[in-house]
Specification:
Length: 289
């Protein structure tokens, strides 16, 4: 490549990167800086803030009430991510292994729910979980239960709602990873004497682990802040960090404290993303086996 062509190529590459940098600056960096500065300001008596620096909001987060809220959010995120992994990984794996005819149809069925509002789909679960609802009618019709179950506005209902909302992200991440896999490596392992299970654990699972880790990140992080799922299916019984932030913005009108909670939540999610990037590194994956 000549020097002139190289300069034109570099100029074109730089021009393609400008929109990305502008978007990151306008919608990521500037809002984060604003939120960080806001978290150190003093709340006004009625509404807004006073330009007086303080650490009180971060000290307040150390109270048992808010520490327990963060721990509850992390616990729920771990439970939801575990169930999503147990269901989503096999689903994504076998979907990628289907013939083209069935693969496209299963993909269509997976994408159809995205065409409907998430709130409407969650309200559909209210019909399922409510007393004498669809689930109760089925269970009592099969003589599994004798009376209606109180599932609505409970912890299991929130877990199911979270799984329902987030499991497609795990399925698609695993599906993409399996689709790109080199199956000749699996055949080579089988030819060298490895059984189905050993070949899967040492070759298939290892090669699809980046997709699994991507799915974990895409499900774990949102599950800590999907407060509307807890509101709709959990009532006031299940309180997440997102619920506290929403309450501070709407009812408490404490913008600096809501910003401080958001900063801590972003730090936690950044640590999770950093852990994912470290594990997704090829050299790190080699050390797992």
């Amino acid at each position: 490549m000549s020097l002139k062509k190289k300069k034109n190529h570099n100029r074109f590459l730089w021009l393609t990167l400008v929109p990305i940098y502008l978007f990151t600056l306008a919608f990521v960096l500037i809002p984060f800086i604003y939120m960080l500065v806001l978290s150190f300001l003093t709340r006004a008596e009625v509404w807004g803030t006073v330009n007086r620096f303080t650490f009180d909001h971060y000290i307040r987060i150390l109270e048992p009430l808010y520490i327990n809220t963060f721990l509850s959010s992390l616990k729920l995120a771990f439970i939801v991510t575990l169930f999503i992994t147990l269901f989503g990984y096999p689903f994504g794996y076998f979907m990628a292994r289907l013939p083209g005819y069935w693969k496209s149809r299963v993909m269509m069925l997976l994408m159809i729910p995205f065409w409907t509002s998430g709130l409407i789909r969650l309200y559909g679960w209210i019909i399922v979980f409510r007393s004498n609802g669809s689930l109760d009618q089925i269970l009592m019709g099969l003589h599994i239960t004798e009376k209606p179950l109180k599932l609505l506005y409970s912890y299991p209902a929130v877990v199911v709602g979270m799984i329902y909302v987030l499991v497609p992200f795990m399925i698609l991440a695993v599906y993409s990873s399996v689709e790109k896999m080199d199956w000749t490596l699996v055949e080579a392992a089988r030819d060298l004497g490895a059984g189905r299970i050993k070949a899967f654990l040492t070759v298939t699972f290892r090669l699809t682990l980046p997709g699994l880790l991507s799915g974990v990140v895409l499900t774990f992080i949102p599950s800590m802040g999907l407060f509307f799922v807890a509101d709709i299916l959990g009532g006031n019984k299940i309180v997440l960090v997102g619920n506290v932030i929403q309450e501070q913005l709407t009812k408490g009108r404490n913008l600096p404290f809501a910003a401080a909670l958001s900063v801590i939540l972003m730090i936690l999610t950044s640590l999770i993303i950093g852990l994912y990037r470290k594990l997704a590194n090829t050299k790190e994956l080699e050390g797992l086996f």
